[in-house]
Amino acid sequence: MIEISHLTKSYGGVTAVNDVSFTVRPGIVTGFLGPNGAGKSTTMRILMGLENASSGHATVMGKPIQEHSSPLTTVGALLDARSLNPARKARQSLLALADTHGIPSSRVDEVLALTGLSGVADKRSGGFSLGMGQRLGIASALLGDPQVLVFDEPVNGLDPEGVTWVRHLCRNLASEGRTVLISSHLMSEMAQTADRIVVIGRGHVLADATVDEFIDHVGDEHVRVVADDAGRLGESLARSGADVRRIDERRLQIRGTKPALVGRSALELGVALEELVPVRPSLEEAYLRMTANEVQYRSGQGLGGPDLNGKQVGPPQGMPPQGQYQGQPQGQYQGQPQAVPSGAPQQQFQQNPQHQAQQNPQQQWAQPPAPQGRRAAEPGAENQQGEGR
Ligand SMILES: Nc1ncnc2c1ncn2[C@@H]1O[C@H](COP(=O)(O)OP(=O)(O)OP(=O)(O)O)[C@@H](O)[C@H]1O
């Protein structure tokens, strides 16, 4: 179990971590997500006793790491793969670590085999590729067979086979009842690896929930319809409380209702459907929606630019252009197909602050304070409308 309680860390004028609290439970994999500079590594470094907190606490199995008599057998961490002496051979580094922590040397060969490094065990780690260095860092984290694992960007530099291996490793460690905290920018990977996620932005916890809860609350789930009489269907659905946007003569986007209800309405109205598609966003899409305004380092213009993996992307789906906020009541029907500038998103979404309220003790949603110099949503403009997708 890891407990982070009201943790704050300031470096001069920079508050890297600001009153962060969350719990990482055993038996599941918890993903730690956030844009560059959000405060993930700082939190992990404080947890591992490599930095002191300005205030608050970070504990492993009930106490700070410094108070454990045998830290390496309590918690294993990969924080910086280059922290091992590059002049030493991989096996030598691990043997030295084992020796100073009272771990039998036979365990060194076990973790070398486990991480696929047996064949290069007698090579200097300074000559290792980034991926091999990551594997060696993971080997040192596993050396003490600890109950708690903390991995900061473990898949960084790994090839696809290595990424899959880390996923299986984390899932296996969790299935043995261990506590696993892992940070990554690879959202598709985190969607497959993590059971819960903690999202942090500019030092604040933005969400603490299961992956499904996160997508349900933050993602822009909707129903896409192509119908021969989209106008009549859209008006009827809006009258029953759905949020309907007419894309063109035949296409609708509908939020706030189920596909089956849309199909039933169409049947009752005698409207023929060509398409009825439930659109559920990915973890990456939901994450980009939540963190679009939390990105500290951004390339390109507006909300477009390289994503966290360096891929060129357009604006996050459903995000309005910055500074453009419009309230949008529920049950609204926008009957006229809208002229959409090319490249501009075409979508309406509602970011309901209630979604970010405490849902249950296990699930936390927070709206961080708007940073200085950035325009906050106007009072009464909580419902944001963007021309999207
Ligand atoms: N030693 C330091 N001195 C000054 N500022 C620091 C120091 N370490 C971190 N920071 C600042 O604290 C903030 C949080 O950094 P941190 O490395 O924790 O973010 P992160 O979420 O791990 O980012 P990334 O995904 O890029 O690794 C950043 O603004 C960073 O510049």
From TrEMBL:
Sample GO molecular function, one term: ATP hydrolysis activity
Organism, scientific name: Galactobacter caseinivorans
UniProt record similarity statement: Belongs to the ABC transporter superfamily.
ABC transporter domain: residues covered: 2-227
Key word Nucleotide-binding present: yes
Annotated protein name in UniProt: ATP-binding cassette domain-containing protein
Annotated Pfam families: ABC_tran (PF00005)
KW Plastid (keyword) present: no
Keywords carried by this UniProt record: ATP-binding, Nucleotide-binding, Transport
